[in-house]
Amino acid sequence: MAEVDERELTARVDEILHRRPAVGLAVGVVQGGSMVFFRGHGLADVAAKIPVTADTLFRVGSITKTFTAVAVMQLWERGLLDLDAPANDYLRGYELIPRAGWRSATVRHLLTHTAGIPEVVPPSDVFRPFFGESVRVGVRVPSLPERYRSGLRLVAEPGTRFRYTDHGPATLGQIVEGVSGQPFGRYLREQVFEPLGMTDTTLARSEVERSRLATGYTLGSRGARPVMEREVVTGGAGAAYSTPRDMGRYVAALLGGGANDHGSVLEPATIATMFQPHYQPDTRVPGIGLAFFRVDAGGHSVVEHQGILPGFDSQLFVAPDDGVGVMGFTNGARRGVLWLPTELGVMLNSLIGVPDDVIRTDIPQSPEIWSDICGWYYLPGPLTDVRARGMVGAGVEVFVRRGRLLIRALTPVPALYRGLPLHPADDKDPYVFRIDLSEFGLGALRVVFSREPEGGTTAVHLDVMPMSALKRPMATNPRPWVEGALAVAATAVAVRSRRARGHRHR
Fold it and tell me: For a tag site, which of 65, 148, 204, 503 has the least CB within 10 Å?
């Protein structure tokens, strides 16, 4: 890879800011063991007019999950736990409870979000702030045994499906605490953060230097409004505070086989293992490593993780074979959850020489397979799996309209329901497609259909996360319900609009 061109990267960040408003934005590039580029823009605190710098403390959300995975793998290196042993062997205070006849959830299942834990626990917490995973600042944060009481009940047999959840990584933190005999936050500080020189990174709000802590904002038509700060109960999943400078040291260690200029936390072979696929619903899907999501980047090895908390978005990409990483943090961005990974992914691609991700038009359609893949595909799991449902609702439907093959999410959201063209993406495999999601702030997404030689298509997989929807008979298709919900929503909008016009005329 060529040397980083600071002027070119500065211009790229400026272009992002022209398209994507943000209260504060920090972008860094790591190469050769250090952060070789940093750009801070905007304000960490609007009222105090404090600018974003490399030492601004951001809440990095779910990037915390990768710290937790590093801690687990340290214990694995020391022979203190087995990744394929039941997680209950190491848990203290509560258990993972499978249904009768199911296999036990292992540590590896927890690292790959395949333990069968639902997204929201208990289901009623879907109506609580942050799904019941936080408390107001000043309120005592309950321990996980207090939070889960009798245990975490599994809703799927471990190893059978992926479902992103905070409760699995939080449970890994509980395992680290039980095996090491140390409070989890202290273990991370002493065994992960301090050896890597990450002296400003912590899970404890009480250890945060408030003068450097960014305020989280929502950004709307009335400008920036601060969000209410809350403390995270599922600490191992999303409680960390860190700075771009510290995160640069972390990315340097991930690129350096577990070590940076300050110290070492893992062996190179262990880091390589974490980046390899440990769960793939289909071999054509990149899948997930141990806590790190894998990316299809033109044949280059890339892993990533995103972090989302109210008022904060964060993203890191690591290309280990190319020796470069890109990271970004915001404390108030409109739809940052969508555009931050997209924009940083484009930046990384330019650094490692991957062409812009475009929809190919040179591969012909294969209408002879359309009857096989058309139909509806059910997304298993409870309705309270809100992240998954937010993307695909009850599932997806593949259909033909006016001679075009389309896919739509079975959700009352009109933009997702109307359908997107499926563009062939592999000239040797007609069951691999791409869809254009640029209107949602995303790029192109790969869609892969699995099939059995004798039984036809069985499932569809999305690259965004290794999620799978299973083909079901058309008689069970919930489309009529979705269309009814859309009609109700349209009627409600029309009534509100009519009332608003009436008020204006009075």
Answer: 503
